[in-house]
Write a structure and sequence with these properties.
Chains A, B: One of its GO terms (cellular component) is plasma membrane. Two copies of one chain form a homodimer. With 456 residues, chain A is of the alpha/beta class. Chain A has helices at 12-24, 35-45, 61-70, 88-96, 109-138, 167-172, 188-196, 214-222, 241-249, 262-294, 304-321, 335-342, 344-361, 385-400, 429-445; strands at 4-8, 28-32, 49-53, 79-84, 101-105, 155-160, 180-185, 202-206, 232-236, 254-257, 325-332, 367-370, 375-381, 403-405, 411-413, 416-422, 451-453. The first copy, chain A, folds into three domains: 1-136, Rossmann fold, CATH 3.40.50; 145-287, 3-Layer(aba) Sandwich (Rossmann fold); 304-453, 2-Layer Sandwich (Alpha-Beta Plaits). The first copy, chain A, starts with a strand and ends with a strand.
């Protein structure tokens, strides 16, 4: 694994030292000697991670971090603040500026590579989704991500440990928002099941556990698709460094050293939960995009695109199983007059009301689509010729019982005309819909508000 | 990094040995003692990789591999065949059955972990996209992936080496399909640039290179978003094992040992190119889905959804820059009559022709959308009130010059009516479109085929 690292420090020897360490491990390194240079480089070259010194003349590390985190093009890049060992206040300020992690000077190799690998791993795993999402946002299909929006949501932390409770964590909860609740589990197998069921939003694993190998628990979580990205925070004491390195290697998201600092705890929890919610949002966005591609926005019915895909499938299925299938074409009567007399808002209201009635008057296995302006198609699998007409009558009555109430208080009675066709052996989607459409045309010619079967 | 590994062998001691090795490195292991059991487990538990013994009673390894690769639920899981050392014929048969890689008995640790890590890394990186894609395929929005469909496409291999040519590769091309061409590059920096420009489909890196550190070249490719997933094949001699392990650690996709076996070469090339094309297809599918969400399928114009997102943005921009903006509402005259008299196919043809004329008669920066059945909206940024009417006239003439030729040879003359409105300080998208729509209504009342401005 490798990554592009941006090293920022106003002192050239510090920059050179980190650069040498990173390049020896085959990382690609960029360097900047000031906050402003760092921001310009980050925007232009999009590194995978930024190592940012706190003390710099001009823009200091905190200011630089704030600007990076507020910029649409750089907010997703993890920032590690490099602080002096004894500056606890710097850590708090860094977290408030949006930093993802810390390294203390002099920088230890283990900590350096552990932090860099762990932070870039998450970034690289989500880059694919993030790129697609950004494209969607540019097109206006998807909304932009906003990490801080997740902070107010209820979340649960599962702490897996042999102890009954870890006081520092309970104590830490003073600094944590009230909507985060902490649950303890002593049995690692039960914990794994709860995690697979998606119960906790964040898992703490005590590396001091003896009742079960804590590393086995980490790999057990990371080995499954569904929990591969679940946030895990390891809790380690100073003499558990070896296990910690192995845990980070297995993909643990972050760690806390004991004694646990309450403010650091709260900040790391917030970061991990934000990331998880962000990933969930990315995933949901794509499902939503796909839905947009097949759903008619105004009425919520399936659109013509879905009719041609899914309808073709239904008809092939009916041919294979030799089961009957019926098609209805439905058209709202005098719809143009509604639009012209009462305006488009009234027209839209009528379309929505009719669609709602169509949806409730067919079965879940039937396919109801809006095919054009005021026209709808319904495909009904396993529906014999004899009952198709009756079902169409039922649809007609369901719609015709609608009285649409306009915003100015006027009411409109709506009727529809329906054409019915049943599947022939030689039919494809186009031919059966055409016959239903011809029947619909005759229903219109015949005075509207009626059901007509296809010509015998 | 960890993964779930399915180990398949009819001899229990062999299974136990591999299981112990893998578990010691914190992999999760499932085991099967027959081909059929392996298939059932793979379908039910979806492992990240299958290690498959060739010689088994009943279904042998080749048959098992074929079945896994033909099943919709398991084709994407990498299969490593475990063969006897001297059985070259087994390798060829395994590749023909669709195996992704080989291990020879007795299995060496280095080779085992290198193969497992490298194959599961690619799978895990693409799992997110693949899951979303599968959801799209179930909805009928996206088509199913078909890896073998990529085999016939032209592809280029870039070989980075100090040599002028590597005879085995040229020689190997006898076994490779004719559409694959091989290009040599001695300068690693030039190679990196070519790779970043996306020129080669597959990169070979000679680990014996001395003019540039071949590992640095690997990390230089892997460190960039755009080339992170680019397929790289390392070429290593027996005494370059240490570099090879490091190269696999840096994310090289696969390797060939010298002397290079021609058939193995051809098979590995095919596998890598298939994977790359598959990833490209996944990426393209998502872009396509997003396009579907904003494009009207019939006419190719933007849809109402895009109008509300992008139109709102354009209007905000116009308010900010205090530049003018004009809106047109366009409606096809007597469209219902066309549909009723000539049928829906004729109606669709008219919609397409009119849309094509609208597209060509506005600027690239204008936003032309189909908002409903036969109605269109056009937003024109930086268009002053004085010229809006003239532009609308031009659009009217462009459309009215259309003669639509129906499939039965009849011709139809089409006209439109247009309402014009210009941006007021207090306008939002809805209010400006409403005024344009009211103007359109008056154009209709006034006898159609004309442009009317909003009421003064």
């Amino acid at each position: 694994m490798t990554a592009r690292v941006l090293v920022v420090d106003d002192l050239e020897p510090n920059v050179k030292l980190l650069e040498a360490k990173l390049r020896a491990e085959y990382f690609e390194v960029m360097t900047a000697l000031s906050g402003q240079e760092a921001i310009d480089l980050a925007i232009e070259h999009q590194p995978d991670i930024v190592l940012l010194d706190v003390m710099m003349p001009g823009l200091d590390g905190f200011e630089t971090c704030k600007i990076l985190k507020a910029n649409d093009e750089t907010w997703h890049i993890p920032v590690v603040m490099v602080t002096a060992l004894d500056q606890q206040a710097d850590r708090v300020a860094g977290l408030q500026a949006g930093a993802d992690d810390f390294l203390t000077k002099p920088v230890q190799d283990i900590a350096l590579f552990a932090r860099v690998r762990s932070l870039t791993r998450f970034k690289q795993m989500t880059d694919e989704l993030r790129h697609r999402h950004a494209a969607g946002a540019r097109m206006g299909v998807l909304s932009k991500a906003d990490l801080s929006a997740f902070d107010e949501k209820q979340a649960t932390i599962l702490v897996v440990t042999d102890e009954d409770s870890i006081p520092a964590i309970d104590q830490g909860s003073e600094h944590m928002p009230k909507h985060i609740s902490v649950v303890y589990e002593n049995d690692a197998r039960m914990a794994l099941e709860a995690i697979r069921r998606g119960e906790p939003d964040l898992v703490f694993i005590d590396l001091g556990m003896e009742s079960y190998d804590p590393l086995r628990l980490c790999s057990g979580i990371r080995a499954f698709d569904t929990t591969r990205m679940a946030p895990i925070l390891a809790i380690a004491s100073k003499d558990e460094t070896r296990q910690l390195v192995r845990a980070l290697d297995l993909g643990v998201s972050d760690y806390l050293m004991t004694p646990i600092d309450a403010q650091e705890l709260a900040a790391r929890v917030r970061t991990q939960i934000r990331r998880m919610r962000y990933l969930e949002q990315l995933r949901a966005s794509f499902d939503q995009t796909m839905e947009m591609a097949i759903i008619d926005q105004l009425t919520g019915l399936y659109n013509r695109r879905f009719l041609s895909n899914q309808g073709t499938r239904l008809i092939e299925e009916a041919h294979t199983t030799e089961e009957p299938l019926a098609a209805l074409m439905v058209d709202i009567d005098h719809f143009k007059m509604v639009n012209d007399t009462y305006g488009h808002d009234a027209g839209d209201l009528v379309l929505k009301e009719v669609s709602a009635r169509l949806t409730t008057s067919v079965r879940g296995s039937d396919l109801a689509c809006r095919t054009g302006g005021e026209e709808f198609a319904i495909l009904m699998p396993r529906t014999p010729k004899e009952s198709a007409h009756d079902i169409a009558d039922r649809v007609l009555r369901a719609v015709n019982s609608v009285t649409v109430k306009l915003s100015d208080g006027q009411t409109l009675d709506v009727t529809v005309s329906i054409g019915v066709a049943s599947l022939d052996r030689s039919d494809n989607l186009a031919t059966i819909l055409k016959r239903a459409d011809e029947a619909l045309y005759r229903a219109k010619q015949n005075g509207r508000n009626q059901v007509i079967d296809e010509a015998a």
